[in-house]
Amino acid sequence: MNLRCINFSIVLFMIFFMVGCQNDSEKATQNRDTKKIVVSAKEKIYAKLPENMKWVTNISDPLFSSERAQKGGIFHSAITSFPMTFRVVGPDSNGSFRSAILDNQLSLINIHPNTDNIIPELATHWAFGDDKKTMYFKLDKDALWSDGKSVTAWDYVYTLKFMRSEYIIAPWYNDYYTKEIEKIIVYDDYTIGVKSAKAVPDLHLKLGISPIPEHYFGTLDESFVEKYNWKITPNTGAYALSDFKKGKFIKFKRKNNWWARDKKYFKNRFNVDYVIFDVIRDFNLQWEYFKKGKLDAFGLTMPKYWHGKSDIDLFKNGYINKIWFFNDQERSAQGMWLNQDKAIFKDKNLCYAFAHAMNIEKVINNVLRKDYFRLPQAFAGYGKYTNNQIKPRKYDIAKVNELMSDAGWSRGDDGIWQNHGIRFSVKVTYSYEEHTPRLVVLKEDALKAGVELLLERLDSTAMFKKFLEKKHDVAWMGWSTNMRPSYWQGWHSDNAHKTQTNNITNTDVPGLDDLIDKYRASLREEERRQLSLKIQTAIHETGAFVPTFMVPYVRLGYWRWLELPGFHGTRRSDSLFDPFSSTTGGLFWINDKKKDETLNAMKQNIKFKPVVINDDTFKTK
């Protein structure tokens, strides 16, 4: 779990800033415009560093890479839709591909994926201020943007200007960097202080921010959104976007002389030369590409793939390996999000009735072969911040009857609840075709309870756009996570009844707002934990979220030329073949000799021993 996601938890499945393209076309090249310098030498003001600073670093935690790793090769992956923009702030930027961009933009510090201790990233050392609001950082003087310019203190000063700008049209960032981050203090070009607007527990989770290149963006104006829609901002990570064709593919290239390649926690990682994401809109078609070797890895989380579709010669003959790897981390809020601005969900009792009409357990048992687990609520897996007393509302037709009758509704001739000509009929919007069988079961059993589900499948980009525009009845989706629960963006009325915010349920409850405001303002960790439990109870009482499934593992098929470290992954690994994440990604590599060997063996019908790995090292008991 990296600090980018910790600070900016507004991503679907997960949350910097990219580089310019040659004509509107398909080639991406670095924009080397150097004339837009914002801070001149005369304008630079340096503060005096406090005395008796206790600087610390961490180069003693265990490595989580393999010395056997080899550089080289092309990793082929797929996305179901082309992103609507390469911007990561502003309109239409909050899509799933955004994480690939953000993962190549490093933070000041990060979290070790097994120990949860702070480790260096763009900063080599850090210190905590006596005011409990400020952290101090010594920047790594080796750090470079992808256009070759040094990362300096002034890029962090610019971060505040950028994120507070009205021109980026990003209310969440405007609010966060105004109300939560007070200022950046520069002591020299490579030493800064980041000051929070208030003291908070786990200050390092808040202040380990990422820089934004002031030499690239310069002074912003009303042209920002359109101007940077398809530009590729200089970044600090291991890869840069190098080529793309809209609607077809996106290619990333590993930086041959990346400044951090020999740093302790980056060594022997980010090994492949190129990462290519082909747009393959249908999941079943991706499976066909995978079987032909056109994709290197494929998620087998869905039971029909792990148990059924992978029962073929490609696996039996040892050409493709399987792995079931358990992790231990915060769980995504997967479920059904009810839009309370829709008339039918304005009554809380109807939200409850809807939840009791959803036979989630039947889906788990019959469709998902008991491989998935029922998610209890929206904030599971956060340790002492999670209210374990909250249980999901289960399928109960008698309870539906009671709630609907009390609300003045009655069953119509077709068996659907109705009231003054309004039928309890709602549209469920989703993206993946593979989820259709789950929704069909829910639809069938909901009918028995008098609720009609109309299923609407859109591609992922169109789906998420609809959710952010608040045009849905019921959103079938999940959010990415932080290391601590984050409530304001998704549940506070500040973000209700308006587009381009994460409050897709349009929840507007004064009492809940008050709890969230207190949680954000709290200076004491124990108080925050208690408030967190109360907030989760209040969210549960809204009935606006129906939790569905959690999957505390990853299951994958991968061609035998892909290799993993002996430990396979970390405690926080949510994908063993993530090429980019600075916390858990880039652990794998391609063995070119094995690839040639495998392809030749297939031609000659030579077989290898099948490989099925079950790793429960991090499975919670």
Helix and strand topology:
Blueprint: H1 3-7, E1 74-79, H2 98-102, E2 109-111, E3 118-120, E4 123-128, E5 134-139, H3 153-164, H4 171-180, E6 181-188, E7 191-196, H5 203-207, H6 214-217, H7 224-227, E8 239-245, E9 249-254, E10 274-279, H8 283-291, E11 297-299, H9 303-309, H10 313-316, E12 320-326, E13 333-338, H11 348-356, H12 360-367, E14 373-374, H13 397-406, E15 410-411, E16 417-419, E17 422-423, E18 425-430, H14 436-448, E19 452-457, H15 460-468, E20 474-479, H16 488-491, H17 510-521, H18 525-542, E21 545-547, E22 549-550, E23 553-559, E24 562-563, E25 589-590, H19 592-604, E26 612-615
Parallel strand pairs: 1-10, 12-26, 18-19, 18-20
Antiparallel strand pairs: 2-3, 4-5, 5-7, 6-7, 8-9, 9-10, 11-23, 12-23, 13-20, 13-21, 14-22, 15-16, 16-17, 24-25
Helix pairs in contact: 11-13, 12-14, 17-18
Which properties best describe this structure?
alpha+beta; disordered N terminus; four-stranded mixed sheet; Dipeptide-binding Protein, domain 3; globular; 621 residues; D-Maltodextrin-Binding Protein, domain 2; single chain; 26% helix; Dipeptide-binding Protein, domain 1; 26 strands; five-stranded mixed sheet
